[in-house]
Design a protein that fits this description.
By secondary structure, the chain is of the alpha/beta class. The chain has two domains: 31-110 and 228-297, Periplasmic binding protein-like II (D-Maltodextrin-Binding Protein, domain 2); 121-222, D-Maltodextrin-Binding Protein, domain 2, CATH 3.40.190.10. The chain has twelve helices and 13 strands. The chain has helices spanning 2-28, 43-61, 73-81, 92-99, 150-162, 167-170, 180-188, 199-207, 238-254, 256-263, 278-287, 289-297, and strands spanning 33-37, 65-69, 87-89, 104-112, 118-119, 121-126, 141-144, 173-176, 194-198, 216-221, 225-226, 229-233, 266-271. It has a six-stranded mixed β-sheet with strand order 2-1-3-12-4-13, with helices on both faces. α2 links the parallel β1 (33-37) and β2. α2 (43-61) packs across α9.
Length: 300
């Protein structure tokens, strides 16, 4: 009888463990997946362009997918911290900032047809402004994208700091346009004299004929920046992470039109090597924790 009682105890314990495992599994498997995106351009336009990919991912993952084009880099980070966003499409620096706040798993990054996984930060102006150097920007009106944008703020900020320029007093006026497209629009309308923008978005706008290269001056071009990765909350169900990665790694074969709808300059997606972002981590260390908090982590 003694052995039988122990046997019942063992059986009961195994049932409890099994139930606990099932409940844990259910808790980590989402009923839907929310993908958050950095504000590269107008939110409605981004969601419209991403829609074919969203439908493709729904089919591949077998769960409903929602897209949230964030209104700022800070809100994307907050969304992932609060677990209202499961997978985020980050800029290089905003990813490094986010990983200082929570456990993240980088999944895939785009490889472009002309520049591979890298792009650049540009400071541009209209040719008729007569501005051709950083020094000639003094006293002018300047537009950044967002304080969380790698190419639209962080790299230009690091440039100014390296030249002992305090941008708040160097420029007569500073504004945050909210997107790369809007920076160019503000330059074109002469609302500002110059601004910082991603080379990818600048190239796209040139190709669309919105601006002509002969009308613009590139005042400064940064060193290469690693591309924008898709990153998952580490607590997100691992099967979902793997399915998402597999779908994105195969999209250039399975759904070429969907990929082109979002960005025709992308050749394909590749797996992220976390070492790609070591150069950005080095910049983050130089700028310091206070900078990271002020521009990326402080609530709005």
């Amino acid at each position: 009888m003694h052995v039988s009682v122990n046997g019942k105890k063992i059986t009961f314990l195994m049932i409890i463990i099994l139930i606990s495992f099932i409940l844990t599994s259910c808790a980590t498997t989402p009923k839907k997946l929310t993908i958050g995106m950095i504000p590269v351009k107008d939110a409605n336009e981004m969601e419209k362009e991403f829609e074919p990919i969203r439908l493709y991912l729904e089919e591949q993952l077998g769960i409903p997918i929602e897209v949230d084009a964030a209104d700022s880099y800070v809100s994307l980070i907050e969304g992932m911290k609060n677990e209202t966003i499961d997978i985020g499409w980050y800029g290089a620096f905003s990813y490094v900032a986010a990983e200082s706040e929570m456990e993240l798993t980088p999944l895939v990054v785009q490889q472009r047809k002309d520049t591979g996984i890298y792009y650049n930060s540009l400071i541009i102006t209209q040719k008729d402004s007569g501005i051709s150097s950083i020094e000639e920007l003094k006293g002018k009106k300047f537009a950044f994208v967002d304080s969380g944008s790698t190419s639209g703020f962080v790299l230009p900020y690091a440039l100014f700091k390296s030249r002992n320029i305090t941008y708040e007093t160097f420029f007569s006026e500073t504004q945050y346009a909210g997107s790369h497209d809007q920076v160019l629009a503000n330059i074109h309308s002469k609302d500002v004299d110059a601004g910082a923008i991603s080379s990818v978005q600048y190239g796209n706008l040139l190709e669309k004929g919105i601006v002509k290269p002969e009308d613009m001056t590139i005042v400064w071009k940064s060193e290469d920046i690693p591309g924008s990765p898709y990153v998952a909350r580490s607590k997100l169900d691992k099967k979902i992470q793997k399915r998402f990665s597999k779908a994105m790694l195969e999209i250039h074969i399975e759904e070429t039109e969907a990929l082109n709808s979002f960005d025709h300059t992308i050749d394909k997606y590749i797996e992220v090597d976390n070492k790609y972002y070591n150069s950005i981590r080095n910049i983050a260390n130089i700028l310091g924790k206070e900078y990271m908090y002020e521009y990326f982590l402080k609530g709005e």
